[in-house]
């Protein structure tokens, strides 16, 4: 019996039982959202923690390589060990493992093909592709790369990026690949398109990748609100009227929200 109790995760007041672990994770999460190293005092203020506690936790984190101390600047940033955690995350492909069953369930409910995508530079890479029965093959097989600004899934991700990063990705007209002469060709056109995505809460693409096919996509956000991936449904243009696309986006949003919870280690309640 004792052994069974020890293997059961603590419930309810777990945070109060391990304040050091809670504080450590909050510091790492906070540093991960900053644009650069920050002073310990700023960390303490942002998290509402005593400065002495923050300094003690930072010292342990620095000793283990999760945090690097910049003595001349009196600031702290993420260290190599934190980077190694992120590469381990990539190697284990949790997005694919967590997203595949959710995308498959979405396909079963809608009867249309769907996929899970991540942004890599200006391209999107397809991690999961689930084709609905009696639907045509798509160009979006697993591992395929396509220009992000031409795809619904890419537009959903680009719309969630800070303006400065978007400018860095698309500094001039040479950054815009064309496909059959369709899609935005300038930064101004892209900004207008992404403004529309933000207003309506989803992205769309109509025949810009494959003639006669359309897609609707929604971004999946991580714990910091960053676009970790996007989920898109692709369908024959005449199968779903454009007036029904907002309702379709709502159904995709439910799946995106569940995947967002799962990559943060949470389940729907």
TrEMBL record:
Protein name per UniProt: Transcriptional regulator, IclR family
One Pfam family from the record: HTH_IclR
Keyword Cell inner membrane applies: no
PANTHER family in the cross-refs: HELIX-TURN-HELIX TRANSCRIPTIONAL REGULATOR, ICLR FAMILY, HTH-TYPE TRANSCRIPTIONAL REGULATOR RV1719
UniProt keyword annotations, A-Z: DNA-binding, Transcription, Transcription regulation
Recorded GO MF terms: DNA binding; DNA-binding transcription factor activity
Polar residues composition bias: residue spans: 1-14
GO biological process: negative regulation of DNA-templated transcription
Organism: Cryobacterium psychrotolerans
Organism lineage string: Bacteria, Bacillati, Actinomycetota, Actinomycetes, Micrococcales
Superkingdom: Bacteria
């Amino acid at each position: 019996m004792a052994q069974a109790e020890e293997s059961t995760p603590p419930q309810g007041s777990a945070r109060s039982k391990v304040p050091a672990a809670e504080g450590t994770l909050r510091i790492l999460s906070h540093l991960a959202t900053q644009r650069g190293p920050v002073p310990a005092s700023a960390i303490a203020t942002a998290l509402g923690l005593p400065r002495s506690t923050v300094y003690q936790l930072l010292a342990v984190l620095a000793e283990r390589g999760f945090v690097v101390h910049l003595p001349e600047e009196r600031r702290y940033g993420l260290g190599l060990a934190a980077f190694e955690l992120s590469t381990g995350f990539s190697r284990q492909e949790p997005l694919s493992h967590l997203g595949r069953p959710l995308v498959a369930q979405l396909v079963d409910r809608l009867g249309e093909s769907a996929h899970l995508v991540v942004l890599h530079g200006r391209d999107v890479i397809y991690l999961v592709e689930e084709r609905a029965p009696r639907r045509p093959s798509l160009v979006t097989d697993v591992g395929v790369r396509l220009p992000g600004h031409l795809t619904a899934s890419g537009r959903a991700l680009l719309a969630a990026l800070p303006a400065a990063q978007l400018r860095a990705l698309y500094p001039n007209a040479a950054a815009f690949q064309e496909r059959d002469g369709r899609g935005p060709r300038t930064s101004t056109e892209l900004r207008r398109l992404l403004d529309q995505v933000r207003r309506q809460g989803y992205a769309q693409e109509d025949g810009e990748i494959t003639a006669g096919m359309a897609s609707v996509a929604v971004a999946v956000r991580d714990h910091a609100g960053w676009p970790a991936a996007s989920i898109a449904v692709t369908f024959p243009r005449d199968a779903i009227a454009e007036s029904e696309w907002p309702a379709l986006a709502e159904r995709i949003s439910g799946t995106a929200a569940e995947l967002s919870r799962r990559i943060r280690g949470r389940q729907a309640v």
